[in-house]
Design a protein that fits this description.
Strands 3-4-5-2-1-6 form a 6-stranded antiparallel beta sheet, with no helix packed on it. By secondary structure, it is mainly beta. The chain has one domain. A hairpin with a 4-residue loop joins β1 and β2. Helices cover 6% and strands 43% of the residues.
Amino acid sequence: MTTLQYYFDKEADVLYVSQGEPRPDADSEEVDDGVVARFDPVSREVVGFTILNFLKRAEQELPAVILPFRAELTVVR
């Protein structure tokens, strides 16, 4: 099972989400204002995403957590 992981960087106000361990080889593309999707460089499947200015959008704080469930991430435009 692949876990969905997220980490919130409070100083930068950025939320990082990834399927499994974050992948430094992933390609990135801004898919919406301040939302960056990360793709497997070979399969082009979404492997994570980043949300800039997260607290400004969500208006609540979140701790760093590893979520124990499987997820399929897709970009919806």
